[in-house]
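Page 42, continued from yesterday. The earlier attempt failed because a stray header line got pasted into the input along with the sequence. Redoing it now with the clean sequence only.
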Amino acid sequence: MSNPTVAAVVAKDLAGYGARRCFGLLGTANFKISHELVESGVELISARHEGNAAAMADAYAKATGELTLVSVHSGPGLTNALTGIAEAAKSRTPLVVLAGDVPNGAVKNNFYVEQAEMVRAVGAVSERLHTVGSAREDALRAVTRALRDRQTVVLSMPLDVQHASLASNLPPLELPPAPGRLHPDPHAVTRLADALLRAQRPLILGGRGAVISDAERDLVALADATGALLATSVCGHGLFSGNPWSVGISGGFSSPVADELISESDFILAFGASLTQWTTKKGKLIAPGAVVAQVDIDMPKLGYQMPVQIAVHADAKATAEALLANVSKRAPSGGGQGGGGRRNNAMRERIRAGDNHHFPRPDESTDRFIDPRTLSKAVDAILPTDRVVASDSGHFCGWVPRYLRVPNARASCLSHSFQSVGLGLPSTIGLALANPGKLAVLGVGDGGFLMSMADMETAVRLGLRMCVLVYNDACYAAEVHYFGRQGLSTDIVKFPATDFAAIARGYGARGVTVRTLADLGPVKAWVGEGCPGVLVIDGKINPNLEADWHAEHFPN
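This time it went through. Structure tokens are written below.
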């Protein structure tokens, strides 16, 4: 028998490193590597657009932590995938994109592009199968950089290398062992403990790094020991879910009470949160004189978005454990609780009354359009609580984390790192595959849904249980509100009405049009059936209502 091809050997290696799923769209340059992955036991999820394939993989990798693959054709296959790759790269998602490439030297080929320059431009890491002899080590390096450095890696795979023969008796290659947790310097822990015990109104803020580190339990214990309140960044949404001392998201999508209590805090301790302008409302949530401390394993993030008084280069969980031990020795009865004093029945009720579900807001529904806040809260109440929730980007996007609750941080996927419209549907598909059997919920605007809805076919084909809530105002609302406030005509970003319920039925899904709360009857009936298949809710929302967070973040 002849020796196997490089593609076959590399595919077997990738399966051996732990890859279970590959998301892709096949062409001539990636067909054989994809075929060999399937032969090696890797499930291929076929998408209808390469950008969607990359976004599916991004959400799946975030939810599972597995080695996750994307397979794309050369030329337009890779260019189509770039937006999804950029989202993953900005999110520091461990992902390996297998990019078919033209044979070495084939610069006259129509599919020829400088892949390395292209992917580096959007923040991804470029690797390549350089030669037949180096191919296995090249692939291993790509996987190592993805998993160990938390990078999105694009592995260029020239066809002449892929199709060449390779000896079949080569020894197996192994991933280098994962590094242990990065522990904080003891002096830094003492500084944090000093500041925490001095604080009268401390607040602990958890971000995506705290989720990845599995630090939630330790952060809750630290907060309980010191009387601190809890909050999250938008990327940490779902941390501390159900905790009575959590004020929820800090920043643009925060509740009224979160704005008040965060801005009243005299010490903010961020774990795995970048403290961006979104999280701090451009610094307005940081009180004058408040001490800000930041803990992160990524050194360049420390103090990058805003000045911090204490910066700790360490893992979130390891730091929380060390800090709790230090505080407990020095104040075994909870000295911070005595000093802080914010945890009492009055505060518990204040947090509840001021959250997004209980704070009174006017209902700006009409007989033709429903208030998106009213719609969101109603859908949240109807759908099962055991769910995973994803969101597209766009003007509407704050209503999803505000009103569609999640049971934990792993159940949330907000594809906002690149702020690209159109990634919500594929993200939901990836999130659903990572959580088999659970109901997957998507909040999406009409523009983003139209941009990505080719993969409605994929959701139906895969038999997913999914509810798609379309915030349909028949326009690009961010531009309508922003430029409308400046007195400019916005007719060029307004469009005829689209019947998403009818389109959903064309894909084999169910669809319902909602203009009033009375129209939600079919949604309740679907839930009563166990939420089978895909349901699209075409929510005809009030186009005149500008989200408060949008008006605040994008003033004239």
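Notes: The chain has three domains: 6-162, 186-353, 372-553.
Reminder to self: strip header lines before submitting.
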